[in-house]
Structures are given as structure tokens and as C-alpha cells.
Design goal:
Number of domains: 1
Helix content: over 70%
Structural class: mainly alpha
Radius of gyration: 19 Å
Distance between the termini: 60 Å
Number of strands: 0
Length: 52
């Protein structure tokens, strides 16, 4: 497949991003393991401040 608007250096730059998109699409737990503690802490703090 050849795209005339895309140069070789652009493919080189996009390849890691495209691989990450596919990997996170197949195995999203990689990202959730990283973000879960921060999100849980944020939800707990918001819950404390929003309770009447």
C-alpha cells in the first residue's frame, strides 16, 4: 500500500503511536493498571467534598 501524501519519516514517527493504539485496543488493562490508583483517589476525594 502506498500513500503519496505520507513520507517515510512520517511513517517512522507514526509507527510507535499506531502500535500503542493497537496494543491498548487489544489489552486496555495496560493503561488501566497505571491510571486506576489516581482515578480511585480522585473519586474518593470528590466524594468527600460532595457529600452534604
Amino acid at each position: 500500500m502506498e500513500l503519496h501524501d505520507v513520507k517515510r519519516i512520517e511513517w517512522i514517527a507514526w509507527t510507535p503511536i499506531l502500535i500503542a493504539i493497537v496494543a491498548l485496543g487489544i489489552y486496555p488493562k495496560l493503561l488501566f493498571d497505571i491510571t486506576d490508583p489516581a482515578v480511585s483517589d480522585l473519586v474518593a476525594r470528590l466524594g468527600e467534598h460532595l457529600q452534604p
